[in-house]
Amino acid sequence: MISNQETLQLSPYMAIYDLAVPADNMLRQINELVDFTFILEELKSKYCLVNGRNAVPPIRMFKYLLLKSIFDLSDVDIVDRSRYDMSFKYFLDMAPEEGMIDPSSLTKFRRLRLQDEVGHAHL
Description:
With about 120 residues, the protein is mainly alpha-helical.
C-alpha cells in the first residue's frame, strides 16, 4: 500500500543535516533541484492505495536506485552506506535515526514496480 501523500519526517535530529551535508554537496543540490514527485505519478498503478502494509515510499526506493547507479554500488553496499553516510540519508529524505530497508527490497522494487518502465536497465 502507498499513502496518498508523502510524510514529512519529524525528528529532533534533522538539524544535523545542516552541519553534516554542506550546501555544495552534490546530493543536496540534486534534492533541491529535482522534483521527484513524478515518480508517484509514474508508479501509481503499481501500488494499491487502500490495502496492505505501508510500502517504503516509491520516491525513496527510486532514490536508492539512483544512488546505486551514481556510486556504482551493489544493493547491499548502497543500503550499508546509507546507514552512516549522512548525505545519503539526507538525499533519501530519512530522519538521521531512521532504520534501513533490507537490500532485497531493492530487487523486489525493480522487479515488481519498474518492470514496464525500465525493463532490464541496470538501475
